[in-house]
Predict the 3D structure of the following.
Amino acid sequence: MERLEVLKTYKLYIGGQFPRTESGRYYTPAGADGKPLGNICQASRKDFRNAVVAARSALGGWAVRAAFNRSQILYRIGEMLEGRSAQFADELIKQGSTPAKAKKEVAEAVDRCIYYAGWCDKYQQVFSSVNPVASCHFNFSVYEPVGVVAAIAPEENPLLALLETILPVIAGGNTVVILGAEKSPLSSITLAEVLATSDLPGGVVNILTGIREELLPFMVNHKDVNAFVASDLSNDDWKTAKEEAVHNLKRIIRRKDVISGPESPYPILETQEVKTTWHPIESSIAGGSKY
Amino acid sequence: MPDCTLLSPPFNRVQSISRRRFPGKVRLASGQQRGENRTRSGLVPVRIFPLIMKTKSAATARYDISCSPPVDQVGIAERAQRFTTRSIKTGAKREGLLKVLNMIDLTTLEGADTPNKVRQLCYKAEHLHDAIPGLPTTAAVCVYPPFVKVARQALGSASPVKIASVATSFPSGQGHLDHKLEETQRAVGDGADEIDMVISRGKFLAGDYNYVFDEIAQIKEACGKARLKVILETGELGTLDNVRRASDIAIHAGADFIKTSTGKISSAATIPVTLVMLLAIRDYHFQTGKMVGMKPAGGISKAKLALHYLVMVKETVGPEWLTNQWFRFGASSLANDVLMQVAKLEDGLYQAPQYFSKD
């Protein structure tokens, strides 16, 4: 007798937990071989709302964590990913990649973790500045996280592009709610299983799966979200995003180099705010002091 | 059925009640410790040491806690669970949320309270969120006794917002009776409309129910026209049976409201505890036709939970209790969560806390 295969239900990742969607809905996208990939939760706007609550409550702990410690945790993600690279490659192949491409994508994904881990405790020194002013002030600008970021992962390269969207955001001390690729969602939830076991505090990264069209308006009009990151939206969707973002003036960020771009620290700065401080000092040459 | 609500010594009806509920089986009422003897027939002996003793203050009649029925813990838990499964949407939700706002006793009971903080609280009570027109005020503000005057000044005499003051050595209740009476009288004299007293849990747990009863009765007398809320601090009573007994004592001693908690210990208002107290109120209403108010306090900070409480009130004691005359929430952070939900209904956007005033 032929054995019936058990189709895995891939759950959401919210606040360090793996809940099913509150809506009870799921979808079964087909893989490259025409067979269903799995039972994938179809997240609702309420799941997104709950994820934002989790991200908001995780923000305080994550943003003030020592940059070096954030760096250690990102490195740990890379380690855990490396250990499960065979599973990731296998899932990429199921979702339509070739063996060679899949292997390369997983390797690059691991490297990307190590790369951003390195930047966690360096970007502030490198990009902050001391500014020249014509008064008795010490004037300096530093980068600080914007807060809770909502993001939509690209459909292409579902593992690498997902990580390339998440990592610069959390490296800079933000927390994120990301919607994984709609048609190839396995990588996003398997990544959640990696994140859950790699010292990352619950709620820093929250991963949803579902229909992009349905969730986009709520991701961009939620007033407790500070920025929105995506790369491959249609022109109409970008228009919606920009219009809906006005309610709380959230930042809309269009990543262009997610899939093929070179490694670069600049994506970190896109979800940072520059804070400038005027610190009064007793005297300076600019202020007319003779010494 | 014998009237078991008020008893005068030495007529004690423990025996008849016990036998009727548990035929052929002994049921020893708690508190009945001295003079008890089981006979072979399993009946409680006729001579029972009277639970009610004469004292100077309330010689006429006190409540006999053995009249309080035992609480079915499993049944309560199951019933409480079912209140939380209702789905309340759109129109009903909006009505419910506005009702909740109007039932809140906006509370600040901190060591760090200042006159300005109290003034700000009073302003918030009258202007919950001016960006949305047509919102109700809260039912009351709840402050420590020294701030009653400040609150009265801030609110004036015509405000719909009542002033509630905690008294009687809040939150522990460990103080001398004359101090408690004086504290109460001063708060009322300063302009408090309502007094939130705490019962002496120490005395209650030591079995001195008469002391607890008398104390409540005397504070009630000291309140004059002010309404009296009696805080049981259920987190310290230990069992639901004790909650039921304390509720009955408070109700019979003259409480206008019974209230779950001070909010100062971690186990505060829960649905099961509130349900037990509501059942005590309901039984009293059945017996006497009189209404007693209910105030869960502490630990209710989400709008959804507050709506579950409203469901429970309606289905346990009835819709007449769904006004701030008979039901209150003691809370400091609930108001903002409810406001966020109301705002969500208004403009369809999920809200962020920073758009709502803290106090």
